[in-house]
Task: structure prediction
Amino acid sequence: MIWRKFGVLASLIIMLVTLTPITIYANEGEPSKDMLEKVEAYVNEQFAKAGITGGSDAIVYKDQIVDTNGIGYSDDEVKTKATSKTIYSIASVTKSLTATAILQLAEQGKLKLDDPVQNYLPWFSYEDKKISKAVTIKHLLIHSPGVNRFQADGSIFTNEKENRNSLENAVRALNTVEVSGTPGEKGQYCNSCFNELGLIIEKVSGMSYYDYMHKFVFQPLNLNQSFYGYELTNHPHQDVAKEYSWIFGFKSDRLINFETFGKSQDPEGGIYTNVEDLALYVQAMLGYGKGNILPPDIMERSFEGIVPSEQEDWKYTFGGFTAGKLVDENILYKAGDGIGSSAAIMFLPEKDLGIVLIIGESNSEVKLPIVKGMLQILIGEEPSAVDSPITLFKLAGYVMLAVTILCGILLMWLIRLIIKRQSTRNKTIKYRWLHILLSVLFFVTAAVLGFILFTVRLTQIGFYGYPLDVAVGLISLFLTLFFWAMYHGYLSIFGKN
Result:
């Protein structure tokens, strides 16, 4: 009887379990398999839409790298597939790792963020020596020493041979840079700030910047596939992607990031790594890294937005990131654009969720919309539509190609006019006033263009701060305007009525 009752009870339990819908839940907030597949399809779609050569991505949840993917090719010529282990230049994403090193030294009491830079580099100065005394380490971290980015970047050309591969010489060259704002008042993106921080790391730690980063940042986090450019030759077995940039609108692998920028720019943009290592770094930023590189309270404070950045509603933090919002969620973001790659990391600290994206060519326009879209999918939102505008450097290259060709035609036409005029006995001219007007117009335009070429430095690279194709186009235009000004000036003075 007892066994019969037990059998009936067991049957009822089995029926109840069988008829009740069963749902197996992942950890709360952990991306589901469907989400991961949707993200992968989304990224591949955006790469194809933008015509991107290749790249890779990774998704982090707490202490797990839940997904990694290679996209397209790391070498478009021989069709080598990109993988999650493919190494790329991450350019300015390096800044966040350099900031981490500074925060470590601050936590150890070896420096204070509110200390003036001159406490550690007594000779440091911008052009205004008085204001320079007030520039602190924190001002450098939050991109707010009050200097113009392009002028600071261009200071390397005061003596390029001595400055490009010497961190100290490059920082000393900043003494020619004007201070255009009050330190700490507002943010203005500052590459040179992080090179100054790299030099402070050396002075405080008594180690080279590279040795410190390897020992106290890379090694604790097991970033075993992370290097600085000049170190890559010691690791020939690594899968290093070709770097694709644009020259006259055509894709080229002629330029290499670390060779072009030089060692003096390494603290702000010199790291080469892959999405697997960057994912480990994001884990550490979320507080789940295997190496406890920063205490939780320091980490949390480093995420607070302090000064407005150039992007609306984003603020610079002293952790090397910009802080903003995504669907009412707090997000941290850092991006980098190198000679032949673009990289981005974005994470939501409250959701323990992070994204790593590397684009294997110089294409800065799409990385932010893509990483935003990836995160939107992972938090259950529809991704925003991503426009795929023509890459700025590609567009500039096409424009400069057209300018160069047009200038060549105009100069050949000018030579033809001069030869024709010399071969005829008739030296008279009509409309002298028009020749005077054209001469003045061409000369003034050439003078303005020449002033820009000789005084404005857009970057730290190329022909005195100008990408090669831009330099060729602008110099061609300058010479064309100058020679036409001279021609019309000659006619207005020596031409016969």
About this structure: Residues 392-494 form one domain. The chain is about 45% helix and 15% strand. The longest strand covers residues 64-75.
